[in-house]
Amino acid sequence: MPLLRHADLQPYNTFGIAAKAEALARFATADELRGLLAAPELSAMQRLVLGGGSNILFTRDFDGLVLLNEVPGITVVREDEDHVEVRAGAGVVWHHLVMHCVAQGWGGLENLSLIPGKVGAAPMQNIGAYGVEIKDSFVSLEALRLADGEVVNFGLSECAFGYRESFFKREGRDRFIILSVNFRLTKRAHRIRTDYGNIADELARQYITQPTIKDVSDAVIAIRSSKLPDPAVLGNAGSFFKNPVVESTVAERIKVANPSAPVYSAGPGHSKLAAGWLIEQCGWKGKRLGHCGVHEKQALVLVNHGGATGAEIWDLSDQVLRSVRERFGVELEREVNVV
Ligand code: FAD
Ligand code: EPU
Question: To test ligand 1's pocket by mutation, which of 71, 115, 145, 169 has the most ligand atoms within 8 angstroms of CB?
């Protein structure tokens, strides 16, 4: 694709926010990326790499170069009777990778079915759902270091994965472009995880007692489709906030006053609260403010009802954050990346 100037970013973010980029280009190999970074008219610009644009909020135009990651390919790096190591290009659509693995009978990613976006962004926040995070199957990744164009390999510990966190979201932000990710998956003796949320209920509803990885994937897809809005229909970026991790004494105080409050353990002395529950208790669920609002089925998801600006969504998130602070004394942190 030729370089686009003053490019419209609306098709490239699932919130559907109208914003412009000074320049926009696609790359499918490390060499194409190096070529773009070195081009005299582009080399001084700030850069932003995008996959599916499903975890980003544009509150302004981006005065720089947007790089659309289209690095393709799913290949087997090595395998034995029990395991397979798979390398996926960063431009592969995440759900396509999951569907490919499920179809091959490779276990490990099935609980992460239907998460939007591309493979390259998955390590950024260690994507997770239904009791599984990518760190559980992650082996390594390759990323291009913007400072010198070198391709660097990162192992598990170097990625510093945490809950919706990684090195790339913190110290490594804007310094590396992830090109491929390797996962180690099971070929047999799969670890079937049905203990989280209502996966077991969904399987029981279908009279499935010995679920396969395909059954788990189907159940996750059914649950997600019933409560998360499809960005093609209603602009959103999934959970806008993280579930807050607080000292257990804080969670106990909330639980005593509100026995129905969901509380999960989060290591010694700490508990995780459900941000969706906190936001719903503050009366936000289904509320609409101008062009944006809080989703009617999942209060953790902010939505663009059409024509919202990023600034409007930011202001709504600020109001939500303040009311949770005032009512519960709990500080929410935004999950979405804000430009
Ligand atoms: P983008 O939005 O394009 O980018 C996100 C950030 O990563 C940006 O800062 C970008 O610069 C950076 N980035 C992108 N690609 C690269 C790269 N190759 N190298 C370095 N940095 C990069 N997330 C979950 O964890 N669990 C869920 O269950 C979940 N459900 C969702 C449901 C819906 C309906 C939606 C809309 C979103 C959901 N998300 C969920 C959030 C989102 O899908 C994930 O964060 C996803 O990994 C984002 O991928 P992307 O390619 O769209 O990233
Ligand atoms: N809840 C409410 N009201 C709401 C929403 C949720 O009371 O409006 C309660 C639910 O009843 C449940 C609890 O909160 O008791 C948790 O809800 P849910 O299972 O829907 O999950 P979540 O904590 O809201 C997290 C992730 C999702 C992930 C799901 C499933 C975060 C920030 N969000 O949501 O990830 O898909 O669990 O594992 O951790 C994302 O990161 O974008 C995302 C969608």
Answer: 115
Q: What is the residue with the minimal CA distance to atom 10 of ligand 2?
A: 277
Sheet holding 301-304, edge to edge: 235-239, 301-304, 292-294, 288-289
Q: How confident is the model at residue 313 (pLDDT cuts 50, 70, 90)?
A: very high
The amino acid sitting at 320 is V
The catalytic residue among 164, 180, 184, 271 is 164
pTM: predicted TM-score of the whole model, two decimal places: 0.96
Q: Is residue 11's pLDDT more than 60?
A: yes
Q: What's the whole-number average pLDDT of the chain?
A: 97
Tell which one of 95, 136, 277 to mutate to probe ligand 2, the residue whose CB is within 8 A of the most ligand atoms. 277
Give the pLDDT confidence of 214-223 residue by residue, as tens digits.
999 999 999 9
- Please give the radius of gyration of the chain, using alpha carbons only, rounded to the nearest integer: 21
Domains of the chain are 4-69 (3.30.43.10), 74-206+216-222 (3.30.465.10), 235-338 (3.90.78.10)
Q: What is the DSSP letter of 314?
A: H
CA distance 123 to 132: 13
* Cα–Cα nearest to 107, from 182, 192, 181: 192
Which residues, listed in sequence order, are joined to residue 296 by a DSSP beta bridge? none
**Which candidate in 54, 239, 271, 317 is catalytic?**
239
48 touches ligand 1 (CB under 6 Å): yes
User: Which residues are CB-neighbours of 119 under 8 A, at least 6 positions away?
Assistant: 51, 88, 89, 90, 91, 92, 93, 94, 97, 180, 181
pLDDT one-digit tens code per residue, 236-256: 999 999 999 999 999 999 999
Give Cα 195 to chain centroid, integer Å: 21
